[in-house]
Write a structure and sequence with these properties.
Elements (H helix, E strand, L loop, with lengths): L1 E3 L2 E7 L1 H10 L8 H6 L2 E5 L5 H23 L12 H7 E6 L2 E3 L9
Antiparallel strand pairs: 1-5, 2-3, 2-4
């Protein structure tokens, strides 16, 4: 087990995101709040000197993260919410960060 020089950002959908997921109707059945909490994506972040630097990094990338999450549910960007700024991002997702990341795999990471 090795400590990795990264943090992990996990985005958990709020009720607003869940409502949108169910409104685009690409699934056969509605996604429940419990299912939505299990459908999270994790993003590796670089190391930061402090929490403010980390917050600024996330704020700067919020729109791109938002769009990546939306695209996972609906590839038609015309059906995405028109406002995708940081404020909207924080209404649609609960942001969790873990500062200690351990690599349990013996093989190197491969980037696709």
């Amino acid at each position: 087990m090795r400590l990795v020089n990264r943090s992990v950002l996990v985005l958990k959908p709020t009720a607003k995101m869940l409502d949108w997921i169910n409104s685009v109707g690409e699934g056969s059945t509605a996604v429940t709040p419990e299912e939505a909490q299990e459908m999270t994506n994790a993003y590796l972040l670089p190391e930061f000197e402090d929490d403010e630097e980390q917050a600024n990094y996330i704020r700067f990338r919020a729109k791109k993260l938002f769009e990546h999450e939306l695209d996972a549910w609906c590839t038609d960007s015309g059906r995405w919410p028109s406002i995708r700024n940081y404020e909207a991002f924080t209404e649609w997702f609960r942001v969790e960060v873990s500062h200690m990341v351990y690599d349990l795999a013996p093989d190197p990471i491969i980037y696709n």
